[in-house]
Design brief:
Layout lengths: L3 E2 L2 H23 L4 E7 L3 H17 L2 E7 L5 H13 L5 E4 L9 H7 L11 H9 L7 H12 L8 E5 L6 H9 L8 E5 L6 H5 L4 E4 L17 E4 L3 E5 L5 E4 L4 H4 L5 E2 L6 H20 L4
Parallel strand pairs: 1-11, 2-3, 2-4, 5-6, 5-7, 7-8, 8-11
Antiparallel strand pairs: 9-10
Helix pairs in contact: 1-10, 2-10, 6-7, 6-10
This protein binds NADP nicotinamide-adenine-dinucleotide phosphate.
The site of NADP nicotinamide-adenine-dinucleotide phosphate has 25 residues, from helix 10.
């Protein structure tokens, strides 16, 4: 049977419609408008396009969005001052500092300065700790998006062998933790692989669900997976330029090679990517409701 394509575009569309409807209702009933600020330091083209996409989506869903663009030589103290200002601004419920930051700025210091109640990226240690404990919190957007994709595609995670390739703080570690939680959408047996893993193929071939977030184009081939595997490809790698000038993107999985063996697979682009921005909007809505005391 051909692999089911798990479309992030379609799933994101459905979730965005739910978010837009809830925002419209909040505005009507309480006059509440969720507010998001994105802070960009420097001129990294990928970061610029991510921030533009976030603002465009926020606007389309009825979220008030502001963008602060700072030069690459902005001092850390100035960035901290701006974060502090938005922490105190009641019209802003979510603060996103686009990563990576220039080298002279201590990333952790800036992320820790964001009010955890406005930490819609879910990177503050308070939210990371709550996530570990299974307490309600802002989940990091990409892992949150993966959970939604699996759940809405009807993939059973309970008892499944889940193998995660990559151990970053923004994808690998949190998605492994979330798949382990004792609740629906979790309850998996989780293995995490990284560059020091002795025999990665041994692990990937056992996976019922394989989640790859390594940042290496097309690294996972058909001989590294078993028949019937569900594959979530998080990787976004620019591997060239089309005649149109647009970047050609590839995932961490060799889609054409593995598609014949997989039961289901996310494409790149159009898989995890659209979900990440959608979950940012969902977190911003959640932050606004919490600030207003609406359950
Ligand atoms: P990262 O911080 O660079 O981490 C990569 C991880 O993969 C590291 O833990 C690394 O191991 C591991 N790794 C790299 N090469 C490997 C190999 N050959 N074998 C086994 N493990 C390997 O990357 P990230 O931020 O997690 O992002 C990963 C990918 O996802 C990137 O392509 C990124 O662009 C993409 N991404 C997409 C979205 C989205 O919304 N679609 C969001 C975030 C990230 P070590 O720890 O041992 O170095």
């Amino acid at each position: 049977m051909p692999a089911k394509i798990i479309s992030g575009i379609e799933t994101a569309k459905a979730i965005r419609a739910e978010i837009a409807a809830e925002i419209a209702s909040l505005r009507e009933r309480f006059g509440l408008i969720p507010g998001l600020v994105t802070i960009l330091v420097g001129q990294d083209p990928a970061s610029e396009s991510y921030v533009a996409a976030k603002n465009k989506t926020a606007h389309a869903l009825g979220i008030h969005s502001e963008q602060v663009t700072l030069t690459a030589d902005t001092r850390e103290v100035e960035l901290l001052r701006i974060v502090g200002e938005y922490n105190r601004n009641p019209a802003i419920h979510g603060i996103l500092v686009q990563l990576p930051l220039p080298r002279h700025i201590n990333e952790a210091k800036v992320l820790f300065a964001i009010d955890p109640a406005k930490d819609v990226d879910g990177f503050h240690p308070v939210n990371v700790g709550k996530m570990m404990l299974g307490e309600p919190c802002f989940l990091p957007c990409t892992p949150h998006g993966i959970l939604e994709l699996l759940q809405r595609s009807g993939v059973e995670t309970s008892g499944a062998e889940v193998v995660v390739v990559g151990r970053s703080n923004i994808v690998g570690k949190p998605i492994a933790n979330l798949m382990l939680q004792k609740r629906p959408g979790g309850n998996a047996t989780v293995t995490i692989c990284h560059t020091r893993t002795r025999d990665m193929n041994y692990h990937t071939r056992r996976a019922d669900i394989l989640i790859v977030a390594a940042g290496v184009a097309k690294m996972i081939k058909a001989d590294q997976v078993k028949d019937g595997v569900v594959i979530i490809d998080v990787g976004v790698n620019r591997i060239g330029q089309a005649a149109s000038g647009k970047a050609i993107l590839a995932g961490d999985v060799d889609f054409d090679d593995v598609v014949g063996k997989a039961a289901a697979i996310t494409p790149v682009p159009g898989g995890v990517g659209p979900m990440t921005i959608t979950m940012l909007m969902k977190n911003t809505l959640q932050a606004a409701k919490q600030a207003a005391g609406i359950a």
